[in-house]
Amino acid sequence: MDEFSLIARYFAPLEIPSPDVLIGIGDDAAVLAWPAGEHVVAAVDTLVDGVHFPHGLRADAVAHRLAAVNLSDLAAMGARPRYATLALTLPVLDEAWLAAFADGLGKALGTARVSLIGGDTTRGPLTLTLQVLGSVNGAALSRRGAQVGDVIAVSGTLGDARAGLELALAEPLARSQDPLLASFLWPTPRLALGQGLRGVASAAIDVSDGLLADVGHIMRHSGCAAEIDVSRLPLSSALLASVGAARARDYAQSGGDDYELALCIPPAALGAAHALARQLAVPLTEIGVVRAGSGVRCVDGQGRDVTPATLGYRHFV
Ligand code: ADP
Ligand code: MG
Prior knowledge:
Layout lengths: L2 H9 L9 E3 L7 E2 L6 E10 L10 H18 L3 E11 L4 H17 L3 E9 L3 E10 L14 E5 L4 H11 L8 H7 L5 H6 L6 E4 L4 H12 L2 E5 L7 H18 L6 E5 L4 H11 L3 E8 L3 E5 L5 E2 L11
Parallel strand pairs: 4-5, 9-12
Antiparallel strand pairs: 1-2, 3-6, 4-6, 7-10, 7-11, 8-10, 9-11, 12-13
Bound molecules: adenosine-5'-diphosphate and magnesium ion.
């Protein structure tokens, strides 16, 4: 199969027909009509085999992850995702792998109503890049804007994906039904929450590198300090049962890959934020406050300083 029939068979079906796509897959570039008054929100993420996912991980889970990491970035900006382009570098043409990959990508993009409008296909070490384009009508959420006195809150539970990663390393084809493995394999970007909290939260980030590292990014961009009560971190019963309380807390603080949203919320907006979270059936837990200063300080339930065992993931240190 040549490159063109590969694209026609596996990727062209992921384009959603729309009058806004004036030119889609097949030409030199895509041409889009954009709704008047809306801003374009663009994000791109690359997954490298063996770096961002375990080597040999099932292809539909690789595709889901590729979509989720990008959609999660748009969720953190409060944007509605609309389009994606895919740059695919493959070591061999393995049709079974491609079929599973395209299936996983189609499901993940389809659920978010994202249309694949182009890409690039090359040979080389397995590397996957997705760019997503979304829109916001008004100001986006961002890492800037946290104010002293805001409450720090986080969606869902933290640390499950870190425990799930270990299961996936042991079993890359991941056939078992373990809930921790599932939270690593199938992260759910918090799109509706992010979009609903635009104009409610003062700042947001998606938790990809680990809670403390990511909250630190908000603080750096906003010029404030975070005080996190680590006794309040939301931990799932599956995580507690699997690794115990101490390691669960460490994973929740620093584990990464959670793709939850960490948010700063002005006290006056807390009611609206909790009401939205309840309506979406997404847990939203208050875990700290924004203070004057810089950096992230961890305290226990009595306000005493605690030193985290590990910090978040970094590529270049
Ligand atoms: P060019 O040589 O002009 O870059 P390509 O041969 O790379 O064109 O791509 C042909 C068409 O197929 C383009 O419209 C491109 O966007 C699309 N395309 C290529 N690879 C993919 C892919 N993996 N997924 C979706 N569309 C793709
Ligand atoms: Mg090309």
